[in-house]
Design brief:
Layout (H helix, E strand, L loop, with lengths): L1 H39 L6 H22 L7 H4 L4 H33 L14 H39 L1
């Protein structure tokens, strides 16, 4: 359990660093484009596409550390106010929905991959496929699905052992 937590924490830190780097890339290109247009009266054509790619990397990589620390907006305000079996049911439902979301993100990437891998950004000199900007969706989906699955298994084991402990006390 501790090893799994350490691994997910490391992945979340790497994802946070990638997300921050994507923000820096967006800021750099937007500011440099403003300077180019207003001072030098020229433009760098790939700016919009670079910022679009960076935005998707920032958004999807940013989901990972948030999900890892339960920082995403969910129905936690409702779950934390309940107790007993209602809490357990809502907690499990929350984790199952998260698992489904992660799986859907991976399935969506795989479904669109044949189309986005054959299209290329028009303003880059090199052939850069559209799949580059959607790849972090699959990574975030894998993380969410794996962590949610672990949390469901942990919940099941906790509930089973809790019942066994209660039976042993009797």
């Amino acid at each position: 359990m501790n090893l799994y937590k350490k691994i997910t924490d490391v992945i979340a830190k790497i994802a946070a660093a990638i997300s921050m780097l994507a923000v820096l890339v967006m800021v750099f290109f937007i500011v440099s484009e403003l300077i180019r247009r207003n001072i030098f009266n020229s433009s760098f054509r790939p700016t919009v596409e670079i910022c679009g790619i960076s935005f998707l990397w920032m958004a999807f990589m940013g989901i990972i550390p948030l999900y890892n620390t339960n920082g995403l907006m969910r129905l936690d305000f409702l779950i934390t106010r309940t107790k007993g079996p209602v809490y357990e049911i809502l907690y499990l439902l929350n984790k199952i929905v998260s698992l489904g979301l992660g799986v859907i993100m991976v399935v969506a990437y795989n479904a669109q991959y044949p189309y986005v891998s054959t299209r290329f950004f028009s303003t880059f000199a090199a052939k850069v496929p559209y799949s580059l900007q959607y790849f972090p969706m699959a990574v975030a989906g894998c993380f969410i699905a794996a962590k949610a699955l672990w949390e469901v298994v942990d919940w099941v084991l906790r509930v089973i052992f809790k019942k066994q402990r209660e039976e042993d006390k009797k």
